[in-house]
Amino acid sequence: MTTLPEIHTSGFFFIADAHLAGRPPGQRLEGYQEQILAKVEACLIEAAKRDMLPVFLGDLFHWPRENPNNLLVALIALFRDYTPYVLVGNHDKYEARLTTDVSLAVLEEAGVVHVMKEAGPVLRAHMPGANVVLGASPDGTPLPTHYDKEEDETVVWISHHGIGFPDFRDRPIRISEIPGVDWVVNGHIHRPQPTETCGQTRWANPGNIVRLTFSQRSLKRIPAASYWVPGCDDIEHWPVPHLPFYDVFPDQDFPVEPEGQSSESRFLEGLERLAWKRTREGVGLRQFLQDNLTPETPETELIWNLYKEVTDVQNK
After folding, report:
1. pLDDT tens digits, one per residue of 196-215
2. Mean pLDDT for all residues in the chain
3. What is the model's pTM?
4. 293 exposure class (CB count in 10 Å sphere: 0-12, 13-18, 19+)
5. Do the beta carbons of residue 62 and residue 21 sit within 8 Å?
6. Residue 212 backbone phi and psi in degrees, to 5
7. DSSP symbols for 87-141
8. What is the pLDDT of residue 208?
9. Which residues pair with 109 in a beta bridge?
């Protein structure tokens, strides 16, 4: 078995999808950079108080590169005392690739973060009453089909995937038992989801720490981080300090959300959004298809074949 780095900690403090940015994304108002930096700092301070390892569940950045230097300098200064573990999300990559010109690579080179960019076990944590293996599946990599753990080990696996939680049953990854894996804790899906158990494996999706969407749902939601300790029945949420909704979003009517909208029209609307965001947010077509196509539908194979044909031509 691979020799893993070993640490001593009381638990894992999960920080999902921070989407750090120098300018406000979407309909967020001015002041976004300072507000999200304050949230991240509050999470790191709370993790330290609890003697827990801070773990970012992907999408540390909103735009993968060309973030302002003052944001990167602030993060280097902030992360230096904590050296958190950071999972690679789809927004952290440029054109679906993790290259040396993305902002996350700057933080890694500065030595202030541990970047989890390959699928597999990451470290072994000695916690009160338990030995815990932390594993990771960053964006674009598969979840394990099984894990050969030792008898006295608990395995917590983190991911940044489209997983079929209750509000997202059409996502491509189905919740199922993964032999040898006790927990899967997922980022990527911003809306908090109830934890589900399938056989030995519990699946959790805590939701992100920042409100990005101007909607009734965001109005009602309290941004929160979460933490895991050995023997817990579920992850615990920790509300992140945040401003009132209308201090960070415009005071205007919400857009009408049509009822009974077909999955086909949602798919087409998603493609339209992808075309608009392509150059601004680095959201790749491959990731969009992974998140929205289901293996059971007859058009899935056709769409994937078209995708492969187009990308093969572009790469020649």
Report:
1. 999 999 999 999 999 998 98
2. 88
3. 0.83
4. buried
5. yes
6. -110, -20
7. E--GGGSBTTB--TTSHHHHHHHTTS-EEE-SSEEEEEEEETTEEEEEEEE-TTS
8. 96
9. none
